[in-house]
Specification:
The protein is flat and about 60 Å long. The protein is of the alpha+beta class. It is built from four helices and seven strands, in the order αβββαββαββα.
Length: about 180
């Protein structure tokens, strides 16, 4: 069982992500964009040419693998991704990917303005009452939207972004099995 506090993504990592983004912008090739939907794999990559980003590679492949067991499905999809990368000569192994929209919950929430140290606990409690799965089985992050004042009382608006930890782990496992990172 996971500690519910460990469900929240560490916001200190945002600084590291900004640094990595700056490094990516100095590279000649972008990471490969990868989308896996219920029946399609899409890949895209851009390349810096003469100081401007230009479309470099695009690939799409449809599939119908709904009857396969999860492990066989992961293997088959990983093979398809590897073949697409090779056949369309994508550069590198870095990837940016998203979960399917059916695997992500986005919840708007307003909370009273409070000490920012307690906000994560309030986010967890709000998620606990609204998610269809347990927060100790989730990966949860939040984004501040705006600060409001109503009747002299402050409120903060957030989006809670959550997914079942198992779905995230399956997605990352597929990316790794495809030889990407």
């Amino acid at each position: 069982m996971h500690d519910p506090a460990s469900c929240i993504v560490n916001h200190a990592s945002w600084g590291i992500m900004k640094l990595q983004m700056n490094q990516l912008l100095r590279q000649q090739y972008s990471p490969i964009g990868l989308e896996i939907s219920q029946d399609t794999i899409r890949m895209i990559q851009v390349k810096k040419q003469s100081g401007k980003w230009m479309l470099y590679r695009v690939a799409q492949e449809e599939f119908n693998l709904q009857e396969q067991e999860p492990e066989a499905l992961r293997y088959t999809l990983a093979e398809k991704i590897r073949a697409m990368k090779k056949d369309h000569t994508f550069y590198g192994r870095q990837v940016v990917s998203t979960l399917s929209n059916v695997d992500v919950d986005i919840l708007p929430v307003r909370l009273p303005a409070s000490d920012t140290n307690g906000i994560e606990g309030e986010i967890i409690e709000n998620a606990r009452t609204r998610l269809s799965y347990k927060v100790d089985q989730a990966v949860i992050d939040y984004l501040p939207i705006e600060a409001l004042k109503k009747n002299g009382k402050g409120e903060n608006s957030f989006w809670i972004i959550a997914s079942q930890r198992e779905r995230v782990e399956q997605h990352l496992s597929l990316i790794k099995a495809a030889g990407l990172h």
